[in-house]
Write a structure and sequence with these properties.
Blueprint: H1 9-21, E1 26-30, E2 33-35, E3 40-43, H2 47-59, H3 66-69, E4 75-79, H4 84-97, E5 101-105, E6 107-113, E7 118-125
Length: about 130
């Protein structure tokens, strides 16, 4: 989520804690890269992540920004807010050499934006499956 109310931090932490304790590790697939206009991102395919995100969106109802109410397209931003030519060059480089791979999501992290730097608030790990 891009923006949640800071004055609800304690409740947000409770929701994330409750969600994380019930969530097994998330299988993730990274099939390729995609242009972002002024940047580049790695695509993320993860049906279980989509379901968890929907549960969280329901729990955060009333707090979500218009951006967070849009369809969720998971990705990892590699580059952002650069000239289109710079982004296009990186996209061309990465897309020609990209090899799809898999990974595992192990938890959630809550960050707070402090007008420049980000501050890590808390981490909510999923239970391990052994």
């Amino acid at each position: 989520f891009h923006k949640l109310p800071g004055d609800e931090e304690a409740r947000i932490c409770e929701i994330l804690e409750d969600t994380s304790t019930e969530q097994p590790p998330l299988p993730l697939h990274f099939p390729g890269v995609q242009p972002l206009g002024g940047g580049v991102a790695v695509q993320v395919e993860a049906p279980e992540l989509l379901r968890m995100r929907q549960r969280l969106a329901s729990a955060f109802e009333g707090w979500l920004s218009p951006q967070d109410q849009q369809r969720f397209r998971p990705h990892i931003t590699v580059q952002n807010k650069v000239q289109k030519e710079t982004a296009a060059a990186l996209y061309a480089q990465l897309s020609t050499s990209w090899k799809a791979f898999d990974g595992v999501g192990e938890g959630l992290i809550l960050w707070r934006y402090r007008g420049g730097p980000w501050a890590r608030i808390d981490e909510f790990l999923f239970p391990s499956i052994e």
